[in-house]
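Note to self: the last two entries modelled the partners one at a time, which told us nothing about the interface. This time every component goes in together.
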Amino acid sequence: VEPNATIREIRLMFHKLYPRWYPARQSIKLDPKGKSLRDEEILQHLPVGTTATLYFKDLGPQIGWTTVFLIEYTGPLFIYFLFYFRMPFVYGLDERFTSSPHPVVNLACICHSFHYIKRLIETVFVHRFSHGTMPLRNIVKNCLYYWGFAAWLAYYINHPLYTPPSYGKKQINFAVIMFLLCEAGNFSIHVALSDLRRNGSKTRKIPYPTKNPFTWLFLFVSCPNYTYEVGTWISFTIMTQCVPVGLFTLLCFIQMTIWAKDKHCTYLREFKDYPSLRMPIIPFLL
Amino acid sequence: MAASGSGGGSSRADNGYGSQQPRRRKGPGALATAYLVIYNVVMTAGWLVIAVGLVRAYLAKGSYHSLYYSIEKPLKFFQTGALLEILHCAFGIVPSSVVLTAFQVMSRVFLTWAVTHSVKEVQTEDSVLLFVVAWTITEIIRYSFYTFSLLNHLPYLIKWARYTLFIILYPMGVSGELLTIYAALPFVRQSGLYSISLPNKYNFSFDYYTFLILVMISYIPIFPQLYFHMLHQRRKVLSHTEEHKKSE
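The predicted structure of the combined assembly is written out below.
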């Protein structure tokens, strides 16, 4: 192997020797307990002598992030429709293909679909992933979660016995406005984050507020995309006044708080001059 | 994608097996140890009270039916007290997993309160005695095991008992629990206990009857895993002790 070989080249060579282990599945380390080496690293820049010992670990079957997201998000989109259009096997033959008398149910369908279509568009055109793949078994777990919850909340919203929100139009209108604002915010953040990696680099940079007012949340929060996402789901809960939606919102909040804290810690570790005012997900609080 | 983040690695060299992570935790401090000893002694005593209560009631009544009533209060008190163990894990004074402990304790508390206490008609069932006896013996051994371990003076008998008697007690307890839940089903159906139906302004429904059936089904994947895990632990712990003895 040449001293100026990159890890990516080593991975390709390894793959030729062992066709079973394609590059994405290889974890190459200098130390069995160390971190995996990145593709861009060059052999002679690593702390090795004239001969280097590299450790290989099989990460298991991998699947691309884009593929994962596409599958995860298409499911809820269509599953919701099964309930909205009241397929016969959902609410029984008597209620098949009927529609709800409540306008909020139509609105909820539009919002839910909008949310997932937006996510799909972002996955294809906006997101830039630092890792190409994730382990295959994650997709089963993730899909069960997303699809399962989508089915559960769609069941109640589109049920013949659905009860519209207690405060009527006021509540619904407020929720719609909040929903649109949060969706716009979330999209703005995704675009801003994507612009940080415009040249295809995989290094991390500190995100800063731009001219877009929605990005000003970066002043207070490390992961405003998660903040806006929670806001979206809170607004959806208010719009539908449905406990399963509320539970889903709670779980999303917990999961995103964990991710936000991780991201925040990573930022703090990598950047000495990281803005100290910022909290992970909720300004000043969390 | 979450990096585990915090903490530097241990400086101790690994033996190459890569078996356990190098122990970074120092173990509970002196105050925590004292508290844990007291906790475990109190729990041992509590379950002994339940055991004695069962025996006395049996001797007084002459039959083993409907003994639940004689130990109802201490059972509820000490089984519910076990919730503290979740906090012990959360605060790190006990090296077990919070999730695993929470799961185990919650399942016990669920059976005590949400089934046996809530569905009065099952309290006279013999299946209740089955799991109460299994729990009582298991807990007495388990808490005394922890007590002695904390004091660094663990008699082999207790260790043996903890890792052997479960072979009978575990299936016994599970059978008692399942039979009790099964017995509760018709009464739950009839009374609509803990159930809410549509329409309601929260747009939510919950059928406790179906929930209990799902709980029963969940025993099928969970019980064998836990059982074989204990068997595996048994082989590890008891053979390790023998090797230790031989090498002395």
